[in-house]
Design a protein that fits this description.
Layout lengths: L2 E5 L3 E2 L10 E6 L5 E2 L12 E5 L4 E2 L12 E6 L5 H9 L4 E8 L8 H4 L2 E8 L3 E7 L4 E7 L2 H5 L2 E2 L2 E2 L1 H6 L1 H4 L4 H13 L6 H13 L1 H8 L7 H6 L21 E3 L2 E2 H10 L9 H9 L3 H16 L33
Length: 338
């Protein structure tokens, strides 16, 4: 039986849940201050951890060998990003962080304003660290492959360098369209400190890779850029196959958002070319995903008809005026209703 474990005490003991193959989600309350070494290591079914910045003491290898863990949700109440930094350092796997940053600025006018929350969603790529022995120097050097390490270096204990994070996108997009799409969609959904320049880069990428983005959202296999060059994609049968590891119909696709949610958002932002969705539509129909199929049809209709959707707003969980303005002028996530 699957389990959601809620921990409401000061500390999680070292190895307490190590190799536990039943828990799927862990929630640490604000009472938790310490998490011991390897506390959630090698938990094969663990997919999500929720905690706050009240946890200030992490042992080594808390989520070492994370298995299916891909999402960590953190509430930042005291300006402490140590939990984000420590957990990222523990794993070289791809990881999504959903941040709820409480704005407690003393100069804000009302009590309600002081409790407002800024929403952020960031995807951190995987990386590979290959040890290489330098016999002459009698030391071990590490060859780091992939952009994941660079993305992790954008996280400090007192904040995140969003400009540094966004500047790495060209590296992440070189070989992996799906990873790049996750990064771009996450930043556009919640554009905290997103500059006009970076916003344009993300939007242009999504427009240019419409066919692959739609295949990905429909649960189809998307080739990497290396595989793309190795064969004629227009004739590649793999591009019309369903991915058995894709989320099921209606299941969350990226954090709490379903594939239909994401497609609706992209369509309303004008980031989907509806003339290229036919193969994705076949896959969605094959998965019996009626909502996604309807969204694909609507995206095609909007593109072919040149319909402009100008309705937008702030999500209820985000600040009304953004509260995080950069040179982009963007605030919280745009509201989208399918």
């Amino acid at each position: 039986m699957s389990r959601v474990v809620i921990i409401d005490r000061e500390a999680v003991k070292p190895h307490e849940y190590d190799r536990n193959d039943t828990i799927e989600e862990v929630i640490l309350t604000d009472r938790v201050k310490r998490v011991g070494s390897f506390a959630f290591s090698r938990c094969s079914r663990l997919r999500k951890i929720t905690l706050s910045d009240s946890v200030t003491d992490f042992g080594d290898g808390v989520i070492r060998d994370p298995g299916s863990l891909r999402e960590i949700e953190v509430t930042i109440r005291h300006g402490n990003y140590g939990a984000v930094k420590e957990l990222l350092a523990d794993s070289d796997a791809e990881m999504l962080f959903r941040l709820h940053i409480e704005d407690n600025s003393a100069d804000l006018a009302s009590e309600e304003s002081r409790r407002r929350t800024i929403e952020v969603m960031l995807v951190f790529p995987a990386y590979i660290s290959i040890p290489e022995e330098n016999t002459m120097a009698r030391q071990i050097n590490f060859d780091i492959q992939g952009s994941g390490m660079g993305y992790r270096e954008a996280v400090l204990r007192k904040g995140i360098k969003y400009r540094d994070y966004d500047s790495l996108f060209s590296k992440a997009a070189v070989d992996n369209t799906v990873l790049a799409a996750k990064i771009a969609v996450s930043r556009l959904l919640f554009p905290h400190e997103l500059s006009d320049k970076s916003k344009a880069v993300y939007e242009e990428f999504l427009k240019s890779r419409t066919r692959d983005i739609c295949l990905w959202l429909a649960g189809g296999k998307v080739l990497t850029r290396t595989e793309d060059k190795a064969m004629d994609l227009s004739a590649a049968s793999v591009a019309s196959e369903a991915d058995p590891e894709a989320p099921g119909p209606g299941e969350p696709f990226l954090a709490e958002f379903t594939a239909a949610d994401i497609l609706g958002f992209l369509s309303k932002r004008g980031l989907i070319d509806g003339t290229q969705i036919e193969s994705a539509l076949r896959i969605a129909a094959g998965r019996h995903d009626a909502e996604l199929s309807a969204s694909l049809i609507e995206a095609g209709r909007r593109a072919r008809g040149g319909i402009e959707d100008t309705a937008s707003g702030s999500a209820s969980s985000g600040p009304a005026d953004g509260g995080n303005k950069d040179d982009s002028g963007d605030g919280g996530p745009e509201e989208f209703i399918l």
